[in-house]
Design brief:
483 residues, elongated, 4 domains, mainly alpha
Length: 483
């Protein structure tokens, strides 16, 4: 029966049949749709398709902006392209193979069928009210939009685990903010549509609502500028620029500097504010959700979309980038673990340094408002023959521990930092905690801590170390601190 119906549709779609002078032939052919490649009736077909066609989707997904309806009508559907996110040409033809044999455009057939079933006749706008799919069908349609190779390339942890990319994204990947396709900008879509991927699958939302899957370049630039403006520290950024860059942007306003950063300055991975290290952020995500664009924008957007305030998380630790070769050579016990992950998880608590000339101890002391002397900022090598498990540079604290002949105990650091709340008395207690043994004075001189109390603010008050005071909370990391 389907074969006969296909032959009928092919016959009814012939231009000579529809133009026949025999009224009976024209009447018999009236129920058939014209073939999609019959250009003699292309304008009428375009008029029928246009109200239901999603040009924004077609441009985002296939890059075709010039006369997209005609492209789909003539050849797009034959090449597997879809007219809107909630309609799959391939699935429609798979369920009705006689349409492909007869050369019938699947979307045109769907509109005509919907019009007849609705009891309507004529008019180019009658197909505009195609019903939206229910949630289950929308999820099935969203699966076809996940680009498996792209998804695995951007998520090395999933590629190593051998998971199915489509299944993973539809099950949990969308909640983690993972990008499903290079054609779909999750962050921009959620920010402009006012949704969050913490509670709603952005790709399913897109199937149900359609439109552009990613903004135009000018719109994307404006969105990023507006998103980053409250968090961009122009003064800090100027100080971190190279001499040539600083001279080139000497007369630029803060707004111009932010725009230059968004337009491409971020590629240099210069820190845009004191408590954010873009290179460290990229390293942290290298094994999972690899960062291919501006890490500063990604952090701010992801934090906002997860319902939190950027740079205000109580447990946030701004871990800097790690010199991987130096870290492995200095700390052989790291083994096969990624240096950044080791430092971010355990290394900084053991006062290991992320790179040459970068003291973890000095950074943690600055959190409490203490100013270590030059020796502590530069860091020292362990004295004597036994360098311990650090295998090299532990910084000033390691040198202090070795000077007294005792083992340095980094687990004492949280309580020592809390003790620094108390000004001069706290500074003395800090020295005592860091320098266990019978001769603390000599070791403290090696440590390089000055005798003065923490520097005063402009109002005369002293800064407080933001570490908790008691209990298990003492292990929490400093609020917004930078190592």
């Amino acid at each position: 029966m389907r074969t006969l119906y296909g032959l009928y549709l092919r016959w009814a779609g012939m231009g000579s049949v529809r133009a026949s002078s025999n009224p009976l032939v024209r009447l018999a052919a009236r129920g058939g749709l014209p073939a999609a490649n019959d250009l003699a009736t292309a304008e009428a077909q375009i008029a029928a398709l246009a109200p239901s066609f999603d040009a924004g989707f077609y441009a985002s997904w296939y890059g075709i902006t010039a006369d997209p309806v005609r492209d789909y009508l003539v050849q797009g559907w034959r090449e597997g392209r879809d007219p809107r996110p909630d309609f799959s040409s391939a699935a429609y033809l798979a369920a009705r193979p006689h349409l492909a044999k007869a050369g019938i455009n699947p979307f045109l057939h769907a509109l005509s069928t919907h019009r007849r079933r609705s009891g309507r006749t004529g008019g180019a706008d009658t197909g505009a009210a195609l019903p939206k799919p229910d949630t289950a069908r929308a999820e099935r349609l969203a699966r076809r939009l996940v680009d498996g190779p792209f998804y695995l390339a951007g998520n090395p942890d999933l590629a190593a685990a051998g998971v199915d990319p489509v299944d993973h994204y539809m099950a949990s990947g969308w909640r983690e903010g993972r990008e499903p396709s290079p054609r779909f900008d999750t962050l921009a879509y959620c920010l402009t549509r006012g949704i969050t991927y913490a509670t709603q699958n952005p790709l399913v939302h897109y199937v149900l609502h359609g439109g552009a899957a990613r903004p135009e370049p000018a719109e994307a630039l404006a969105l990023r500028v507006a998103t980053l403006a409250p968090y961009f520290d122009a003064a800090h950024y100027r100080r971190r620029l190279s001499a040539a860059q600083a001279e080139a942007w000497a007369g630029a306003t803060d707004a111009e500097l932010l725009r230059a950063y968004v337009e491409g300055g971020w590629r240099a991975l210069v820190s845009p504010r004191p408590d954010f290290d873009p290179a460290g952020f990229v390293q942290a995500r290298a094994g999972s959700r690899a960062v291919a664009d501006d890490p500063f924008f990604r952090y701010v957007a992801e934090t906002r979309l997860s319902g939190r305030a950027p740079f205000a998380e109580p447990e946030r630790l701004n871990v800097p980038a790690v010199d991987e070769a130096w870290y492995r050579a200095t700390y052989p016990d790291v083994g096969g673990r990624e240096p950044y992950l080791h430092f971010a998880g355990l290394g900084w608590r053991e006062l290991r340094d992320p790179g040459p000339g970068r003291s973890t101890l000095a950074a943690l002391l600055r959190v409490c408002g203490l100013r270590p002397a030059a020796g502590a900022r530069r860091g020292h090598r362990l004295a004597g023959g036994d360098r311990g498990r650090a295998g090299g540079a532990w910084g000033a604290a390691g040198a202090a521990g070795a000077a007294g002949g005792g083992a340095f105990r980094p687990r004492l650091l949280p309580s020592a930092l809390r003790a620094a709340r108390g000004g001069r008395r706290g500074a003395r207690l800090l020295r005592h905690r860091l320098a266990q043994g019978p001769k603390p004075t000599a070791r403290l001189q090696r440590l390089g801590l000055p005798g003065a109390s923490p520097p005063r603010r402009g109002d005369g008050s002293r800064p407080l170390c933001p570490l908790p005071r008691h209990g298990a909370a003492s292990r929490r990391r400093p609020h917004g601190s930078r190592l």
